[in-house]
Amino acid sequence: xxxxxxxxxxxxxxxxxxxxxxxxxxxxxxxxxxxxxxxxxxxxxxxxxxxxxxxxxxxxxxxxxxxxxxxxxxxxxxxxxxxxxxxxxxxxxxxxxxxxxxxxxxxxxxxxxxxxxxxxxxxxxxxxxxxxxxxxxxxxxxxxxxxxxxxxxxxxxxxxxxxxxxxxxxxxxxxxxxxxxxxxxxxxxxxxxxxxxxxxxxxxxxxxxxxxxxxxxxxxxxxxxxxxxxxxxxxxxxxxxxxxxxxxxxxxxxxxxxxxxxxxxxxxxxxxxxxxxxxxxxxx
Amino acid sequence: xxxxxxxxxxxxxxxxxxxxxxxxxxxxxxxxxxxxxxxxxxxxxxxxxxxxxxxxxxxxxxxxxxxxxxxxxxxxxxxxxxxxxxxxxxxxxxxxxxxxxxxxxxxxxxxxxxxxxxxxxx
Amino acid sequence: xxxxxxxxxxxxxxxxxxxxxxxxxxxxxxxxxxxxxxxxxxxxxxxxxxxxxxxxxxxxxxxxxxxxxxxxxxxxxxxxxxxxxxxxxxxxxxxxxxxxxxxxxxxxxxxxxxxxxxxxxxxxxxxxxxxxxxxxxxxxxxxxxxxxxxxxxxxxxxxxxxxxxxxxxxxxxxxxxxxxxxxxxxxxxxxxxxxxxxxxxxxxxxxxxxxxxxxxxxxxxxxxxxxxxxxxxxxxxxxxxxxxxxxxxxxxxxxxx
Lengths: 284, 122, 257
Hints:
The complex is a heterotrimer. Chain B is mostly beta strands.
């Protein structure tokens, strides 16, 4: 068992797993009122670390060799550098152009050259956005109405509207947040997002293209919220991949306004937010 | 098309002070192999996003009294470490340890602050 | 475009990968005292839900009773300083230049649409302009200000009085907001009480905003903002400073989505 504050979670029940998602999606014809059991997803949530593994060993030893099993009792804490939620999964799947962008980004950062990214320029994040496990302690709020589900994100105070029981428009455009539609399958909330622009990043240093298409399946697992997100971007990745996130209930979050004092390393930016032309492009 | 399939993996996680993943920015501009200690007076304490800032008047290594721009994490991250906006105010005499800017400019990333009431915040 | 309809079946092959996530620190304690849920009045909370666009032609807040703004002496001087500073450029309007939140009550004067989201125990107001939002809890007590920091939108708590939602807001980031686009000043004593209800069977929404700030005004005064329901438009949540925004003329004539 892992103790997380006051909550104990069975390690068998919680995994971060990588799998290729299968299956199709149906779109609901009507937006039914939210049922009492579905309403369990409503409220404030914070991401939860679900397992620990062996340490990374001495510098230069390369990535840890895991055995494919989730961490269990007696498995020591890791000691390696932090790796974002995607890098261990997605990096091997990147197409050459994406891999080149990512390697260039990481090399520059390792050399001490701060890279400008949409996130540090206060631009809206793509899915899954901020607030997922692996980052700082920022939260989300999920608001459930019959015809719309709203995600509010603490970091960089952003909202995502998910239109329930609707299809994507024929031309969803190219936006920072993409266009989201959703429906319920029993007590599982299924969200389908596409129509991203080709300038946003999936996470720091991880590129994505306009073809990114994310399907999320959210449901309660005991007291926790599980979000199984499948990322399919044939423009940047050789195959889809799935990441499972876990959240615990949380207190309300405060007002994080990214552009209110956005100085990078002591050098004030001219404005809080640049024009998109200043950002690195991941596709030609 | 060959699909590379991935098995379930073991998670490796660490707890690091400063520089967490998915942060506002990576902190690459700071040299985390060095720590500099400054003792001086708070000129301004900015409890803002995306970073808190301690503007400190303190001597440099030549003994000249200069202004330092010292960056903290966001209020939310600082709160998780026991800070609040009330921890510092203009005029306070403090001792700060920080990771300096690589380019040698008068700034850095805050590692710890020893405040007037004898408490250390990290 | 259709959602994903099929993906290839997995062939599991062992592979070791690293995935490192950091322990997240939860905030120490909660700023909110436990309160019992407030029972709603005769109103249907869902009636507030939806997209609303102002019917006002002006972004200036004025007393609804037609009397002049009841400035204190120092309040009047502050206001005149703001007006001339905004005009000659000595003062910048952060809401315009950095797209920072207009804050409350100014967000209610925006010509861009707003959406109200109604959920158990909370109303959320999302403003398309500068993609700002506030969450208003149904509660009896404000959050502990030792833990809950000042904000652009203030901290709002709500209760029902019959069909009217009464929102009490305090703890503003007063040095970074104006009460309206003309530059009406705010001090850290700013206190708002809003009375919000629907009119005309839900076709319109009225927000009667009572403004109290003893450092600026010699007494409280009330401005009224009215909105019409617009089911024909979708509020965009991705406002980015410097990017093109919706055509406001088309919004008025109903020609834009």
